[in-house]
Amino acid sequence: MDAKSTSSSMHIPSSASFRTALSAFTSSPARFKVLHSVNGPTNSPPPRTLYVLDSSFNPPTLAHLRIATSAITEDKAIEPKKLLLLLATQNADKAPKPASFEHRLGLMTALAHDILSHLTSVPSKSPAPAIDIGVTTQPYFHDKASAISSFPPFAASDSTPSPTQVHLIGFDTLIRIFDPKYYPPSHTLDPIAPLLNQHRLRVTYRTDSEWGRDEEQKRYVDDIAQGKREQDGGKRDWAQRIDLVEGRTDGQDPISSTRVREAIQLSEMSALRKLVPHQVCEYVCSHRLYAEGE
């Protein structure tokens, strides 16, 4: 069975199918590839806006679902829209733990169906978007964006521009993107210029105390707008391409993949169902993932 499908029905390719597709990708020179598609008719027009949710998906949680669905329903971007769930495999030569990459891809597909189920349950003037399950060898966001932009159908053509990518990240990831230590040998922000000149970052506030209150996180972006990162090579107008959005509200319990794995290991099924969406829960349980610890 080919790991690529455009069926909108509830279908998740087998682990063996994903393993074969992943092996072909990692043995090729490709930097990015779509391995599976959900809700994507072959005759659909190329997207003008591509939302990119890049995570380890180990496993996906309700937080992932909220980040994706809020972006699709709330972000005023050019249509048609598409969502890309992206897994980085730069360490594919090492055994990933605690869930294998092929199971992560299965979990991502389950999440895609959960996202579509949520989107079709709420009133909307727009149809639910296609969702791609993709992999990349690139560890840095600017390189991921470049790899995606060179891959059909996301590559520009004579008649269609490359879609604007909207990377869905947390505030902690924004801090890493703007940390010059990740960009040797110059240790400036010059490498991320193509990313922020062409694309956008949709950043969820972190409510953890270590990141400060919302006002402090907003001030970080304001500092970029006021030129306080110019000494590192940052540009003032990059701030216009960074949107800060609410995540969980005060009083809500935090959701993390670590908490999900703990609930599974303690056989807390009622807690698990409050942490992961339905199809992800079904996949985790049917494949007995995370039961034996990390």
The secondary-structure element order is HEEHEHEHEHHEHEHHH
Q: Roughly how many Å apart are the termini?
A: 31 Å
Strand order of the largest sheet: 1-4-3-2-5-6-7
What is the residue-mean pLDDT, rounded to a whole number?
A: 90
Count the beta strands.
7
Count of runs of 4 or more consecutive helical residues: 10
* Poorly predicted runs: 1-8
Give the DSSP E fraction (strand runs of 2 or more residues): 5-15%
Provide the gyration radius in Å. 19 Å
Give the % helix. 25-40%
- Main sheet, how many strands, which sense, barrel? 7 strands, mixed
Shape: globular
SSE class? alpha/beta
Account of the 3D structure:
With 294 residues, the protein is of the alpha/beta class. Helix content is 35%, strand content 15%. The chain contains 10 helices and 7 strands. It has a 7-stranded mixed β-sheet. Helix 1 (15-26) packs across helix 3 and helix 3 packs antiparallel against helix 10 (278-286). The model is unreliable at 1-8 (pLDDT under 50).
